[in-house]
Amino acid sequence: MGSEEGPAAGRGVGFEHRLRAEIEQVARDLRAEHASIQGTLEVITKAARDVVPGAEDAGITLVARGRGFQSRAATSELPKAIDELQHRLGDGPCVQAIWNHETVLVADMTTEGRWPRFAPEAARIGARSMLAFQLYTTEHTMGALNLHSSHPGAFDNTSVSIGGTLATHAAIALIASQREEQFRDALASRDIIGQAKGILMHRFSIGAEEAFAILIRRSQHTNTPLNEVALNVIEHRSDAS
Q: How many CA atoms lie within 13 A of 95 on its CB side?
């Protein structure tokens, strides 16, 4: 959408009506995808690219404890390249949005002075304008929604307002999706542990508590998560001692 004429150019009388319809569709898509984290992320970035004035590409950066930077659901290779650059330098708009809990607008990378190492390289690989929103923060993960344009001055106050609204809705949907996935994982782990207990109970003619104690001891002695110990018992039934 961005151009040298500015993001406001070409907005007709029906812009607000079209925008409202698009955001309503985004909300429906997010509800439909809430059970899949990757699906939710893809809905968010596609919506940001299509709905936010000035945006040509979008991506999401997650910073997870123990796993570093993750570039997710990018609409092209550009957001991935920008994420890799920020990860390598440890600085940039996305990093600032995540750590400082703020929205970061870059009008022109060629004249940007806040990140003297990042900005010239970002401009060289095709990002002249950028808009980064802190997406959400949990105990273990932080994230940002990043919008890119190949044109300077691509984003204006309307872009910031619409992007911020989208980021807020997206954060709620993403957290709900993560919780649902964690719940499914917990149920799956419970089923695996139950199967392993049943195998041990049958093999050694013991009760459920004794079988569970065996799993706990093996988990502690091998420093292995309980569900992995249980899965090993299921896969190697003859090695259940």
A: 17
